[in-house]
Structure formats: C-alpha cells, structure tokens
Specification:
- By secondary structure, the chain is mainly alpha-helical.
- The protein contains 9 helices and no strands.
- The chain has a single domain, classed as lambda repressor-like DNA-binding domains (434 Repressor (Amino-terminal Domain)), CATH 1.10.260.
Length: 160
Amino acid sequence: MKFNTDRKWLERRADQEDRHFISVGGLISTLDPTCQTELESTQSMETTKTAFARLLQLARRERRLSLENLAEKADVDLAELFKIETDEAFTPNLRTVHQLALVLDLPAKKLMVLAGLLQVKDVSLQQASVRFAARSEPIGNVSPEEHAALEEYVKFLNER
C-alpha cells in the first residue's frame, strides 16, 4: 500500500475535515513533528482537567458540601459547577475557578492551570496531578486513602 505523503494533500484533507486532527495512518507525526508535541500537550491537559474535577469533588465532599451548597457559597452557577465535576472536557469560567479557590482555600493560579485556563509547563505539577487522579475516586464517602491523597496534593499545590 502506498501512502500519500504530500504536505499540501494533507492540509487539504485537514481542511475538508474542518481542521480536526487527522492521523493519515499515523504519518502526520512523521511529516510534521509538531503534531506529536500537540498530542502530548492535549494528553497533559486531559490529565490536569481530570485532577481538577477530582480535586473539586473531594474538597467539596471533605467539607460535606452538596453541589448546591458549594455553588451558593462560591456565588457560582450550579449548572457550571455540575459540568465541572461531570464533564472533564468542560472548561470553566475564570471567575468560577477563582471563586472556588477562595471558598475551598486552594491556590487560584494552580486551579486555573488544572482547569485548562492557564498553560504552565511544570512537569512536577503534571506528575502530581496524575498521581492524585489515579488515587482518587469520584463517588462515595471520602476514604482515608483519598483524604491522604487530597491533603498531599493540596500541600503540593500550596508549596509552589
């Protein structure tokens, strides 16, 4: 099988697909090395957004707050708060993240990075986010392990 490796052809195909990512049989990363970096960046963003959603869920549950209570205390839209906790692809409003940081006593700048509102190339934040997301469960009572993971992660976020 012969693959078409012409860059202009690839760009035309991408335009036809409304500029969505097209792997063209995996050749795109060979032809354009920046695609691999973009893919890694996207995966990194997904991980931090997962950590963001789980952090908010655990911090809220740790304080025994319902979604409605937290939305009221933070003066944010309940529907947006619900989307934050249930749709990890959702990008919240900047004000919402700031208000949540104040109410939950978490560093606002780090929360904004986790929410995908700021981009910071911090490998240690990425690694801590992966560890935290892997060790937390989004449902039920906060287990002792989740409590320990939450405390460790909040401590890490406050150190920098």
